[in-house]
Every structure is written in structure tokens, then in C-alpha cells.
# Entry
Amino acid sequence: MTTRVFVPRDTTALSLGANKIATLIQAEAASRGLDIEVVRNGSRGLFWLEPLVEVQTPEGRIGFGPLSTDDIAALFDERFQEGQQSHPASVGLVEEIPYLKNQQRLTFVRAGITDPVSLEDYTSHDGYKGLKNALQLSGQQIVDEVKTSGLRGRGGAAFPTGIKWQTVLDAPGEQKYIVCNADEGDSGSFADRLVMECDPFMLIEGMTIAGLAINASQGYIYLRSEYPVAHEILKQAIATAYEHGYLGKNILGSKRQFDLEVRLGAGAYICGEETSLLDSLEGKRGLVRAKPPLPAIVGLFGNPTIVNNVLSLAAIPYILDKGGQAYADYGIGRSRGTLPVQLAGNVKRGGLVELAFGMPLSQLMNEFGGGTRSGRPLKAVQVGGPLGAYLPEQQWDTLIDYEGFSAEKAVLGHGGVVMFDDTVDMGEQARFAMEFCEFESCGKCTPCRIGATRGVEVIDRIRTGENQEMNWQLLEDLCDTMVDGSLCAMGGMTPFPVQSVMTFFPDELRSARQE
Amino acid sequence: MTTSGQWRMEGVRDIIHGLKHKPGALLPILHAIQDHIGYIPESTIPVIAEEMLLTRAEVHGVISFYHHFRTHPTGRHIVEICRAEACQSVGSRALEKHAKTTLGIDFAETTACGSVTLEPVYCLGNCATGPSVRIDANIYGKVSTTRFDELIADCRDAMREVS
# Structure
């Protein structure tokens, strides 16, 4: 009987040698005359175990990781292919690992289990049930289901998705568009990438349902060029969906049309801002547009457009399959459903943790993350990407909840959690926030374009002790000007990490560390 | 991707003709030209402008806006080091210094032997297993200085095999 062995193919597993391991397993199996099929699955998101190889047994899938190429012969010597767990890298039944078992996976329910480009795997694990339901509903009924779910934009702004869809549904216009924002540029974020690399049909299904809801016949996925693996997998999945009638002129024989295309960005962080993204899709410089008009009314090529993050659209198949209420049953307050949190940076057990809103940040970092990778004390945590505040220890008990983070002058953003140990120089981190804005500003509005440059200069003066108190006040003023006067979140939120360092780590900003 | 410097304007026109019917075709066209030639030669700008009914200034404006597009040839391998916060927390600043010192170049420069162009990148989405480095289409995680030197040695060996 053929034994199935799973070797993941997401960027992280590949970055740690998964391709070589897959090749070696095949070669070793051939030389030993063993009947082994190597399946390239997605990742479970347990990145500290990658490359994590799994073998199918009657009891379930047994994992081995993290593996290096030197381990492969020994794995076979220990008869791992028969489910023997004597190899030191054995982690037992993968689904019993507490990190995975204690999650509440609604969106990432298939990640790492299936072959991402196998439509058969997708449909045999509840895939396309949501679309089949949606085909029986009116546009308004679909939008109502999304409203019931309480889903809010997962890209960071947390705007209610159902309201956005309603606006586009109500906007007059023959041509409407669905645009997926897959320009996941926030450091510490990889959940969008994991959706696209581990379960791309879920995103395609979510976008197709959105198209049915507002009667849009065309969708675009705007993908960042830094994600070559996601690009390949998406292209393959889209081609397969076309072949099997899940995309195109006549979706599942319904006479309804939805076409989908991936467009690559070109290394501009600002294109993750929805209006800048639309300009880029139109073939222009990615300049931010003034709002109003909202993209929901005047969006791509001047037409009503839904622009949603990958995770928002990826939540849709579940909502249309199980019902909006089933999704809304998770969460706290106005933060309904689950958030895929990404534990990153200096973390012992980094990876993806999908949980209902309401878990304290500290519990995530300790119980799941296991503290720092270096083993040194944790000092600061940046949540929500480069525009998010640095949280000191007294804020680590904040619950994962949009309003809870706002109350702490922090942002949950896209759910990326970047941990820093006590070797970090917080003054340097504050400077980097301004430096990054200087590098990535689209240049349209003055507070952002000039403010970031001046911000780097003023921080440098503070750090070298030049007119320190006067420059400190100047930096406070500059931050206020950027927050109040910038056209979009790039300039408007760049001060957040800076202000958090000024408030909680002022001494480190005042004195540059001597090397 | 070819970096041999051998390309024909006819090839560029073919690329444009194959894509210009798409709505918002300029970025796909620029990507295709850069993938084909390795960069976007200045001499193609008037051709792109003419075919797309744009001014040369508009085309230049788009190319210069995006960090990914280049108008000059690069080395045989493009080595990008992640400078974003998650990688900073696990030592990317030290890796960046090491890379610049051992290669003897700054960002946006190419080694004298022509094997490596060094570039910064702001996040490769590999944030739980940093520091991360991208070499051409491949991404590498947990890159120590030793691992970096091995990867660079591979770049140089690969160059020797080619030449």
C-alpha cells in the first residue's frame, strides 16, 4: 500500500529547505524500494517546527520536525514511514500538538492538511459549499449574511465588511469590481500569504461570492511582488478553477459570470492603502486618493468597487456555508469571529494562531509563543505592523480586540505580533519608523512626505543630545501634525510607534547607545 | 530572466502587444519587460509611451515610483536583505552590516565581479523565521552570517559554471 508523506511547500518551509527534503525522501524511498507518495501540502503555520514532515497512519498524521537534510536517512532507519516515533524529531500526532489543538480555526481549517492546488482536496474538506449556497441567494441576502457575521475588515481598518458590501450593492453602475488587497507589507504579518499558499481556493471562493453579492463580473487580486511562491500557487489554482467551471462565464451552470486575475505589485508598501492600490491597478503611480469619494462608490476605473483584505474575503466561504451567526458566535464586544494572530520576530514558537477575539496578548506570547527565541527577557512588542505602537510590559494584558487596543493607543491592525528581547534599542526603533515612512511615502501630502524626513533628523538630534528638550517638543509637534494632517494611514500612523517610545521608553530615545 | 544584455526592441513590442488590451496594462507590461531583459532599459520608455498613448514622463514616473523596477542592469544574482522590524528583532541589522562588509558594496550596488547586486527589502512575509534573505526567486530563513556566506559562495559558484 502507498504511504503518503507530506512535505509543506509554503514560503517558510521552503526557506528552511523543504524542497531538498522532499527530493531526498523520494530518493531514499526509491533506493529502499518503498512505495511512498510525497504530497506537497500547505503549512500548518507551526513555523518553529518547519520543515515539518508528516506521515499518514491509521491513527492520524504523525509529524517530524524541524528536520534538516541530514535527518532523512535516519528517519527511514527508524521506519518513520510506518508511523514509528522513535526518531528524536518526532512530535507525535500533529493534531494533538497543543499549539494547534488549542486554536479555533475557522479560516485556517484546511491549512497544512490539504494539497493547496488540489481542487478535489478542497471540495472534500467543505470547500465550495458556501458558493453553492450563495448561488441560491439574492445579492441582498448574501450581504445580509455577511452583516450578521459581524465581520470587520481584517486588513487593519476594521470597517464592517457587510456595510461596505451594502454600499457597493446600492451604488448605481453596470460594471462593478471585487479587488482583493494582497499587498501584505506589514512586518510580522504572514496570514494573507498563508491563505494564498495553503488554501488559495478559499480566497477564490470568497471573491466569487462577493462578485455574486454585488453583481461584479471581474475580480483582481493585487499581490505584492515579494511573494513569488504565493503567485505561482494562485495562478495554478485560478487556472484549475476555470477548468472546472468555478470561474468564468457560467459558474457551476448558473449563467453567472466571474473572472479573476492576479496582478503583481512592484515593491511599494503604500499600495497596501486601498486608494493607492487602485491607482496602481490602473497602471499609474500608486498615489493615495483623497476620500470621499469612497472606493465603494468611485473605485477601480471610476466604478463601484469592493476592496477587501485577503483574510476578510477568506472568511466569507465559512460564513456562507455555516451562516453569519455561526461566525458571530465567536469573539467579544464588537470584534466578532476569529483573528489569525501571527507570532513573529524574536519568538520561540513563531507561527499562526487563529483564535476567537478576546484572548490576552500575554497569553498568546507566552502559552503559544513560549517567550523569546533568544531566551532573554521580552522587552517590547509591536502589534499591527510598522505603523503600530510598541507595547511595554504594562500593556501586555490587553485583550485581542479592536476597541481594547484603541483604548491603549495601540492598533491590532492585521494581527502581526513582533516580539523584541531586552537587547533592542527602542530609540533606534523609533528612528526606523520615520525612516520607513520616508522610504515608502507616496509623496502626495506634505505631512507625510516632509514630516518623515524631518522626523529622522529631529530624532537624530535628540539622540546626539543637541538642544534635546527643544527638539523633543518639536518631535511631539511633528507627530501631532502628521497624525492630524496626513491624507492616509501611512503618515497618519507612522507617529504611533514613535509616540509609544516617547511615552514608555523616553530614556532610550534621549541617549543613543554607544557601540 | 536574462541579464546578458542581448535583447531586441521587437521583443519589447511583442510584449506590449500581448498585454496592452488589458485594463491598466502598464504594470504588467513593465513586469514582463523586466522579467525578459532583467531591467527596463531607458531606450524602451519612448516605445512603451508610444504604444500606450502616454507621455514619456508618465512612463518614467511610474517606473521610478516602484522600488521593484530598475532602469539599469544588475549583477547575475539579486540578493535582498529584509530590513523590517521582525527581522531586526533577530539580528538583521548585524546581518546587513556583515553583507555590506564582506561584499564590499552598499545597497543598490553590484560587486566588481558582477555576481551579486545587493538590495534592501521590507518584509518577505517570513517573519517567524528571520532574518530572511531573498536571492532571485528563492527565500531563505534563519540566515546567520555563516549561512549568508554559504549562500553567496553558491552565487559565485553558479556564476563560474555559467561562464
The mean pLDDT of chain A is 97. Residues 119-328 of chain A form a domain with the Rossmann fold fold (CATH 3.40.50.11540). Chain A has four domains: 3-97, 119-328, 331-421, 426-510.
